[in-house]
Specification:
about 450 residues; 20 helices; alpha+beta; single chain; 4-stranded mixed sheet
């Protein structure tokens, strides 16, 4: 195997719970609470129902639960189905580096494999921290997104790292698992361009599924190409030279950001500003709304014409004109904000047309250390009200408190029967390191 594959395999094998700081352990538990809440909050969404129907067609031994139900499926399909649910509302966590993505996508892979091997809580925490380290450090290594590649590139490697750690693959098998994860699963950035399809929320889930599959292939003795990073036709050859610095174990999960709103992370600051300024303006007096943002935010949420005329939930929650307009009109952003009827609501359409989105080079320079936006609302009287924000609520530099994470969890579970057991579930998750079998103590009880 090439040097990068061998180095990554060693990194996986050296991951150990005893090496984690107390902060990293705590952040792992916060991310699992947040992730499971996001998934159960989307349990009854049509795409979740369709994903569960697919999972029900697959069975095997070992099997993993579909979160929030008594149903099980193969570990790969459980990882996919649970991954679809956790991303569907676009309120799962985020990491911003040279590239960007949603590292909690790896949680569906980690928990599916953990359940199959009856892993204790400490092993699950270590595997999750490891998967985050791989995912986020690869985001820091290169701007994969501008080069035309989508988030599953780092999602599949984070997932295979966590899965391989739980399966206790040796160095050779782990190297093969990494190869088998990367070679077949390069994903195109077209996923997040133009009008967005349902696949936008499924891409990370597919990476989790493929990471689990690659780890299981390697465990059964399958081998992969030997120079996937450095050889002819490998990643560096196909994209560009890059340096991948692996971080101190458990560091990256402390640098990720929890969302407080169900919109694309690049719109969090702008929408929070709209909610703040709403008390100072009357919507019928608004003449123009200027959103100043950094380049990635403009590219994702304010560049394509579809962002002023969304026809799907996926496009609407990635639209600055839509989400800012809804915040000003309703004073809140919820799942109901993305009902199809709102897309053609005359009041929403009229207000969207008053939104202008502009890149501010100073804000671009402040990204990705921050996720800044400035909102300026000009009224018919000529008066302008404005506000600026650098770190949205939940950012690593403006973190949500444990109580706020719990409140989000309860809110998301309010639409699922598990909401009646929120206190018990929170207790189980906060004491995860004491669990002897996470599948039995946590995952398996979500659907009871």
């Amino acid at each position: 195997m090439d040097a990068t594959t061998e180095r990554l395999a060693r990194y996986v094998l050296e991951a150990d719970y005893a090496r984690l700081s107390s902060q990293s352990v705590h952040e792992c538990k916060r991310r699992l609470i947040d992730t499971l809440g996001c998934a159960l909050g989307a349990y009854d969404e049509p795409l979740s129902v369709r994903a569960r129907a697919l999972a029900a067609r697959a069975s095997g031994d070992p099997a993993a639960h579909i979160w929030g139900s008594r149903g099980t499926s193969t570990p790969e399909m459980a990882a996919f189905t649970n991954g679809v649910m956790l991303r569907l509302m676009d309120i799962s966590d985020t990491y911003l580096g040279k590239s960007r993505g949603h590292p909690s996508d790896v949680a569906s892979a980690v928990l599916a494999v953990a359940e199959c091997v009856h892993a204790p809580g400490r092993e699950v925490i270590a595997a999750l921290a490891l998967a985050y380290d791989v995912y986020c450090s690869l985001c820091n290594a290169f701007d994969w997104n501008s080069a035309g590649w989508d988030q599953p590139l780092y999602g599949v490697l984070g997932s295979v790292a966590g899965a391989g750690r739980l399966l206790q693959l040796d160095a050779g098998a782990m190297a093969n698992a990494i190869s088998l994860a990367l070679v077949p699963n390069m994903a195109m950035a077209q996923t997040r361009r133009g009008p967005l399809s349902s696949w936008k929320g499924c891409a990370g889930a597919n990476a989790a599924r493929n990471g689990v599959f690659a780890a299981m292939l390697a465990r059964e003795g399958f081998t992969g190409p030997t120079a996937v990073f450095e050889g002819e036709g490998g990643l560096r050859d196909n994209v560009a030279p890059f340096e991948w610095a692996l971080p101190p174990f458990g560091h990256m999960i402390t640098q990720t950001h929890i969302k407080s709103l169900p919109v694309c992370y690049h719109g969090q600051s702008a929408v929070l500003l709209a909610l703040e300024l709403r008390a100072r303006v009357a919507v019928h007096d608004i003449e123009e709304i200027q959103v100043d943002a950094y380049r990635a935010a403009v590219d994702m949420m304010g560049k394509d014409p579809s962002r002023w005329a969304p026809t799907t939930h996926e496009t609407a929650d990635h639209s600055l004109p839509y989400t800012v307009a809804i915040a000003l009109l309703d004073g809140a952003i919820t799942a109901r904000s993305f009902d199809a009827a709102r897309f053609t609501d005359s009041a929403v359409v009229a207000l969207m047309q008053k939104v202008k989105v502009n890149e501010d080079p100073a804000l671009t320079r402040a990204y990705p250390e921050g996720a800044p936006s400035r909102l300026r609302i000009r009224l018919r009287s000529g008066e302008t009200v404005a506000a600026e924000r650098t770190y949205p609520a939940g950012h690593a530099k403006s973190p949500m408190t444990d109580a706020e994470v719990e409140r989000k969890f309860r809110d998301m579970l309010s639409v699922h029967p598990a909401g009646r057991r929120a206190d018990d579930l929170l207790q189980r998750l906060w004491s995860l390191e004491r669990s002897a079998d996470v599948g039995q103590d946590v995952v398996g009880v979500l659907g009871e």
